[in-house]
Amino acid sequence: AGPAAATDVSALVTLPCGASVQCVSPSVSCVAGSDDVACLLPVIGAGETTRVLLEIVPTGTGSVSTDVLVSSAVDDPTSGNNTDEATIELVPGLEKADSFESCGTP
Length: 106
Fold this sequence. Notes:
Elements (H helix, E strand, L loop, with lengths): L5 E9 L5 E5 L4 E4 L3 E9 L9 E4 L4 E10 L11 E8 L16
Antiparallel strand pairs: 1-4, 1-6, 2-5, 3-4, 6-7
């Protein structure tokens, strides 16, 4: 949430080793690579936040970490908060989809 609207926002999510994408939240344009997912959001308004929901299919159990990097076409005076790391608890048993599906509203 910044002082100005952010345009051409992109989020790059690094997938845990061997994981694949099951689905992404609606209204978000995402492309999956072999080890990451790139999502594009046209605009995030000043002071607003947004959420992108990704469901991934793990290859094991336990927990793994993933990194997220966001950027925008708008100059960011506080670029130090554009990355984050999340720890994910892996739950086996989902089947890999042939293509992205809608996860529903996050």
